[in-house]
Amino acid sequence: MRHNLLTLICFLTLLSHFVNAQSFDQPNFNPSTVLWYKEPAQKWEEALPVGNGRLGAMVFGKSGEERIQLNEETYWTGGPYSTVVKGGHEVLPEIQKYVFEGKMLKAHNLFGRRTMGYPVEQQKYQSLANLHLFFAEAEPATVYKRWLDLETGITSVEYRVQEVRYRRDVFVSAPDQVVVLRLTASEAQKISFKANLRGVRNPAHSNYGTDYFTMDPYGQDGLMLKGKSSDYLGVEGKLRFEGQVKVVAEGGTVRTDDVDLWVEKADAVTVYFTAATNFVNYHDVSADPHARVEAVWKNMAGKSYPQIRDAAVKDHQKYFQRTTLQLEIAASSYLPTNERMLNIQKTADPSLAALCYNFGRYLLIGSSRPGTQPANLQGIWNNDMNPAWDSKYTTNINTEMNYWPAETGNLPECVEPLIQMVKELMDQGSQVAKEHYGCRGWVFHQNTDLWRVAAPMDGPSWGTFTTGGAWLCTQLWEHYLFSMDKEYLKEIYPVMQGSVQFFMDFLVETPDKKWLVTNPSTSPENFPASPGNQPYFDEVTGMNLPGTTICYGSSIDMQILSDLFGYYVQASALLQVDQEFAAKVAAARKRFPPPQIGKDGALQEWAEDWGQLEKAHRHYSHLYGLYPGNVLSTWRTPQWIAGVKQVLEQRGDEASGWSRAWKMCLWARLYDGDRLDKIFKGYLKDQAYPQLFAKCYTPMQVDGSFGVAAGVMEALVQSHEGRIHLLPALPSAWHTGSLNGTRVRGGFLLDFSWKAGKVQQAKLVSNAGQSCRLKIAEGKLQITQGGKAVSGKLMEDGSVSFPTQAGKEYLVKILDLR
C-alpha cells in the first residue's frame, strides 16, 4: 500500500508540474494506466467515464462550464412485461418443412406472423440526468490538462486562470454509492459557480403525462430531481427515479433559488450526487426511490471527503491491482492519449496495448459488479434516450464479448451479474420454449432488456437465433473452468441442463436422416446467397431487407451446441448426476454436422454451400468454434484451419470496433501476433474514440473495448486446450514485458515475464490442485515448489505436465535459454 501511495504522490506531483510547463520534461507516470489530454471534451464521445457498477458518469472537463452526464443502471423504459405468444409451436412443423424444401421466404413470413414475440421490439436503457456547473472566472483558461487514472478510478482536470490554479476530481464511490466532484484552487475564496441538475426528456416517446421530471431545491445545500420512465411499445412506464445533489463548501456561502444552487467564494467544495429507482428485480418495481436516496445520505453522515475518497480508491484497487501488464514504454508513450493513437500508426508504442487492456478491465469494474446489472451495449454510460440498438443486451456476440476479459483479467466477481441474468432469463425462457416451440427446458434469442424477456424479437431475420441462451451457458461453464469450484458448478448445472433439454427436443433430422440440426436457424445478421433469396419488404419490421437469413443448422448454432452438449456431459460426470440423460446428449452430439469447406475454400457459414449477399460481413459467426468456442483448433483440428484463414482473408481487417476486436482474438488463436497487432492499430485509427471507447461504426459500444482487452491477453497466454501456452501469438513489437496476476483455466494464478520474445521465468499458484500442463516455446523447464524439484512429463506437443497441490506456489525457470 505504501508503494501505491508513493506512486500516486509522484503522479500528482507530475500533474502539478504540468500546470507550470507545456510538455513532459521528465515523465513520471505509468502510460499503461493513465489517459490524458490537452483539451476538454467537446462532445460526449470524448468525455471520460467513471462508474461503480450502478452509477455512471461522463466528465467533460471544461473550464467555463462543466457538464457531468449521469446514468443509473436500472433507468429503462417500460416496466415488467412479457413477450410470450401462446400457440406459436403449432406452426413450427410447417416452418421447418418450408426451410428443408428451400422455401425460405414462406418460412420467414410464417415465423414472423405466428412465432415472433409481441411486442416485436424491446425496452430502452435511458440517460438519467446532467449536472451543469457554470463558473465565475471571466478569463480564459491556460495550461490545461485532464486525465483519467485507471489505478485510482479518478478523473481530474487542472488549468490556470491568470495566476490561480484550479483543479477538479471526479469519481464514483462503490462503498458510499455517490458520484463525487471535488473542486479546489491554489488560492482561498476562488471557488464560485452556479449548479443546475437537469433531467432528460425522450423526444420520441414523451408527453407530459408519461415522461416527466421535476427539479427542486433540496434544503440550502442541495437539488433534487424526480422523474418517471417513458411508455414504450404499449408498456406503461413504471419506473420512478430520484436524484439528489448535496454540496459541502469549505468557506464561502451556499444558497438555492427556484432551480439553481449557488456557491460563492469558497476555498474548496465537494459535490455529491446519488440516485435510485423503484426497481427491485425484473418483475418487481415496488421500491421507494426517495427512501433509497435518503439511506445513502444517512450512511455518509459524519464522513469527510478524504475518508470517502480513500474508501472508494481502496475498493477500486482491490479489483484493479490484482493484475498488472507491462509492455515496453517508448518516448511516444507519454504523448496525450489521442496523439498516441495516431502516432502508433508509424512509431512503436507497445504500452498503448497495455493501456487498452487496463482500460477494458477498468470499464468492467465500473459497469458490472456483484449485485448490479450486467454491462449492456454501452456498459453503463449512455447519453441518449433512444440509444443505438436501445443499449440492450445483444447476445449474438455483444453481451458475450463484454465478459471475454473478465476471467483472465482476474475479475470473476464482475461476471456475477451476467450469471444472475442468465438465471432470470429461464423464467420467460421456459414459457417461450413451451409456447413458441413446444419444447421442454428454456430458450433465449438474440436480445433482452432489464425485464428479461426471452422471445424472438426484431423480426425473423434476427429472431431465429435460438442459441443466444446456449452461448451464455458456455460462458457459465468457462467461469467454472477458471475456478474449478464444484459448489458453483452445482449452482449452474440446472441452467445448463435446461438449455440442453430444449435443444434435445428442438433438434430435428435433416430429410436424409444424416444430421440433427436446428430449424429454423440463422447465422446472425448475415444474409446468405441462397437460391431465390432476394430483396423484399419485411412486414414484421417494416424494413426493406436484402433477403431473409432463415436456414437450418447454421455453423454457429452447431458449434455452440457442440460446446454446450460437451460441457454438459462433463458437468454430469463431475457431479455424478443424470448419467442416462447425459448419454443421450452425447449420442445426439455425434450427429451434429461437422465443419465443412465450401467451393471457395472457406469454412462454410451455413449447412448448404452458399455465399453471402454482403461482400465483407462484420460478423464471424461460423468462427465461433475458434474463438471464443473450443471446436476449431490449429493444434487439434488442423484440417479446418486453411478454411478459417480463408474466411478471415475474404472479409479483411476492417469493420466496426467489436468486429475488429473479435478478429484480434481469432488471429491470436491462429498464433499470428503481427496480424493481431495490425488489426489493433487499425482499430485505434478508425474505430476507437479518443478515450478508447469502441465505435460500432459511429455509435459508442463498449463491447469493442472489452474485446480488445481479451485480444491482448490471448496474444500472451492461452489455456483453452487443456494446457497453459505462454506467448502463443506475441506481436514482434511487444518483445519485452511482464504479466502478473492473470487467471488461467484449471484454477491457476500466473505471473511471468519475457525478454526478446522469450519467456524468462514463470510462477504459478495452484488454487484447485489440478494437474498443470505448461507449454513454453523455448528451453528446458525447471519446476520447483518450496525449493524442491517437481518432476514433469514431456508431452507430444512439447508441453510439460506436472502435478500440483492446492494452495502451493510453483516456480518455473527456463534453462538453456538462447
The unreliable regions are 1-26
Content-based structural category? alpha+beta
Please list the strands of the largest sheet in the order they lie side by side: 1-6-7-8-9-16-13-12-11
Largest sheet: 9 strands, antiparallel
CATH superfamily of the largest domain: putative glycoside hydrolase family protein from bacillus halodurans
GO molecular function, one term: alpha-L-fucosidase activity
Protein name: Alpha-L-fucosidase
EC number: 3.2.1.51
Organism: Haliscomenobacter hydrossis (strain ATCC 27775 / DSM 1100 / LMG 10767 / O)
Short account of what is shown:
The protein has 818 residues and is α+β, with helices and mostly antiparallel strands.
Secondary structure elements and pairings:
Layout: H1 2-20, E1 34-37, E2 48-51, E3 55-59, E4 65-72, H2 92-100, H3 104-114, E5 129-135, E6 142-149, E7 154-161, E8 164-173, E9 178-185, E10 191-199, E11 213-217, E12 222-228, E13 240-250, E14 253-256, E15 261-266, E16 268-277, H4 289-300, H5 305-320, E17 324-327, H6 337-343, H7 351-367, E18 393-394, H8 398-402, H9 416-437, E19 447-448, H10 460-463, H11 468-483, H12 486-506, E20 508-509, E21 516-517, E22 536-538, E23 543-545, H13 555-575, H14 579-589, H15 641-651, H16 657-669, H17 673-686, H18 703-716, E24 717-718, E25 724-726, E26 737-744, E27 748-755, E28 758-766, E29 772-775, E30 780-785, E31 788-789, E32 793-794, E33 800-802, E34 809-815
Parallel strand pairs: 25-29
Antiparallel strand pairs: 1-6, 2-3, 3-4, 4-5, 5-10, 6-7, 7-8, 8-9, 9-16, 10-15, 11-12, 12-13, 13-16, 14-15, 17-26, 18-19, 20-21, 22-23, 24-25, 26-27, 27-28, 28-34, 29-33, 30-31, 30-34, 32-33
Helix pairs in contact: 2-3, 7-18, 9-12, 11-12, 11-13, 12-13, 13-14, 16-17, 16-18
Domain Alpha fucosidase A-like C-terminal: 718-812
Domain Glycosyl hydrolase family 95 catalytic: 304-716
Enzyme class: hydrolase
